[in-house]
């Protein structure tokens, strides 16, 4: 993937899917894996959870298969699943360059910042404070479906 996944990450996702907590969407052709994303029905982010907005997480496409529309197809599928339950889909991206493609992709698809500012994990980032630029520093966005 270019990013390390902890061992057992997919088994854990399947277990959570069995419990009805998420939907794991996988892009495959025959037996070849191209990418995946998750729809988390009850987000850990209060801005989504309090409004009952499902969150798309963990969108990843194999580095050798990018820019062929697979990420867009996964988002189409995720938004379709969410639309059965909610008028809005939520998503978040990190702020450093590794997320650059995702930043452009989400904005292009009509996702807008949710208006609550930056968060570090689930906590709002306060003006004047210092935060490490890592995967926890996130801007959350919404799309009306
Ligand atoms: C983000 C990601 C899933 C996109 O997957 P993909 O299959 O390449 O996406 P698509 O082919 O559907 O691209 C759709 C749009 O995304 C944007 N995009 C994709 N790759 C891009 C790149 N390298 N640079 C800039 N924009 C890019 C473009 O707007 C593109 O539209 P265009 O082809 O009309 O210009 C993929 O780059 C990835 O796995 N990145 C690493 C993981 C990641 O950041 N995940 C998101 C977590 S929030």
Keywords for this structure?
binds coenzyme A, single chain, eight-stranded mixed beta sheet, alpha+beta, 145 residues, Aminopeptidase
Explain what this protein looks like in three dimensions.
With 145 residues, this protein is α+β, with helices and mostly antiparallel strands. The protein has one domain: Gcn5-related N-acetyltransferase (GNAT) (Aminopeptidase). Helices cover 26% and strands 31% of the residues. It is built from 4 helices and 8 strands, in the order H-E-E-H-E-H-E-H-E-E-E-E. Strand 6 and strand 7 form a beta hairpin. Coenzyme A (COA) binds next to strand 3, helix 3 and helix 4.
What's the quick description here?
By secondary structure, the chain is of the alpha+beta class. The chain contains four helices and eight strands; from the N terminus they run H-E-E-H-E-H-E-H-E-E-E-E. Strands 1, 2, 3, 4, 5, 6, 7 and 8 form an eight-stranded mixed beta sheet that branches.
């Amino acid at each position: 993937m270019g990013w390390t996944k902890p061992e057992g990450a997919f088994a854990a996702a399947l277990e959570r899917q069995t419990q009805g907590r998420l939907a794991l969407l996988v892009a495959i052709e025959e037996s070849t894996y191209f990418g995946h994303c998750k729809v988390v029905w009850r987000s850990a982010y209060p801005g989504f959870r309090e409004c009952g907005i499902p969150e798309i997480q963990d969108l990843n496409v194999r580095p050798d298969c990018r820019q062929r529309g697979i990420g867009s197809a996964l988002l189409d599928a995720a938004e379709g699943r969410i639309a059965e339950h909610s008028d809005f889909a939520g998503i978040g991206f990190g702020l450093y360059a590794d997320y650059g493609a995702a930043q452009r992709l989400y904005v292009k698809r009509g996702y807008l910042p949710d208006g609550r500012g930056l968060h570090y994990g689930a906590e709002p980032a306060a003006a004047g404070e210092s935060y490490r630029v890592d995967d926890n520093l996130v801007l959350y966005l919404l799309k009306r479906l």
